[in-house]
Design brief:
Length: about 300
């Protein structure tokens, strides 16, 4: 792939943020009307994607018809809750804070995570999680995230992986149920916050609050494009600039969990979609060919998460 092709790809990734925002606002408004709903509801985490969706909903149906659920638990970072509340106040949208710890305790979730058995402060838990994460990647040649996209049959440390996966994913599924509980009680459209990058590589929870929803306005936008949209919507710079994090287990941020930066992912993924040869992508981006293969495998292994198999 020539440098001209790379320049062309980078150019294609640029969006006209005002036009995109207007289109997505109309999309949300149209579906609220079409499905006879009286407003919108979303999960607001304090992260970039949910902040953008909150702003789009406010512009689409109004602050009075937008409800944000803030659903923290033991592993949630307090700074994210503060950022979510600050944004909601700025947008003048309604919020409900629901501590999901009681639900998770009732389901036995916290017993699945070994570090919860020890009286450790959150920063130390995070450091230990990071150490274990890196150890697994060195030992097996892939990060736990990549290993989790398929089952754990015959994989090393399968018991730990299974428990860790169940622990993390349950949190998003509890949040999904609460979104639908309040969505149906108040006749609101449930709005998802997943972006295209995460969706294509499987960095989401199937049947979780970022997947099982009524509409997903950001699903055609890569992460770097969502950042452009956020700037246009005047999302606070603190939210735009902080490291994206799933905030479901201490110590991990998105790019460490995935194993590759979003800036690279968002060039590799469209190049693969355009069926450019792997070695040409690697040469143009000046990265190792193994990274291209890794991303291609993420897309392949997570395919089952984007579909339901039928006979």
């Amino acid at each position: 792939m020539s440098s001209h092709k790379l320049t062309s790809l980078q150019s294609q990734m640029k969006i006209e943020a005002g036009t995109v925002a207007h289109s997505l606002e109309n999309f949300i408004k149209e579906h609220v009307t079409k499905l006879d709903r009286e407003g919108a509801i979303l999960g607001l985490s304090g992260g970039l994607d949910s902040a953008v969706v909150a702003a789009l909903c406010q512009r689409a149906v109004g602050a009075g018809q937008t409800l944000a659920l803030l659903m923290p638990e033991k592993d949630s970072q307090k700074e994210h809750l503060k950022d979510a509340l600050d944004l909601a106040r700025k947008l003048k949208i309604e919020t409900k804070i629901i501590d999901i710890v009681p639900y998770l305790k009732q389901l036995g979730a916290y017993q699945l995570f070994e570090l919860n058995r020890l009286p450790l402060p959150q920063p130390l838990k995070g450091a230990l999680v990071n150490k274990a994460y890196r150890y697994y990647a060195r030992k097996t040649g892939e990060p736990p995230f990549a290993a989790s996209l398929l089952g754990f049959k015959d994989k090393e440390f399968s018991t730990y992986l299974s428990k860790g996966l169940a622990y993390c994913r349950l949190k998003h599924r509890v949040r999904m149920m609460l979104l639908y509980l309040y969505g149906e009680l108040e006749n609101r459209l449930v709005i998802g916050t997943a972006n295209r990058t995460e969706h294509e590589i499987g960095f989401f929870v199937k049947h979780g609050c970022d997947d099982a929803v009524d509409v997903m306005p950001l699903l055609n936008l890569y992460k770097t494009q969502v950042i452009e949209l956020a700037a246009y919507l005047k999302i606070p710079s603190r939210i735009i600039n902080k490291n994206p994090s799933p905030d479901i287990i201490p110590g991990l941020i998105d790019e460490e969990a995935i194993g590759i930066p979003y800036a690279e992912l968002d060039l590799i993924l469209p190049a693969l979609a355009n069926q450019w040869p792997e070695h040409e992508i690697a040469e143009a981006l000046k990265i190792g060919a193994e990274k291209i293969s890794y991303v291609k495998n993420l897309v392949r292994k997570s395919a089952h998460m984007r579909q339901v198999y039928t006979p």
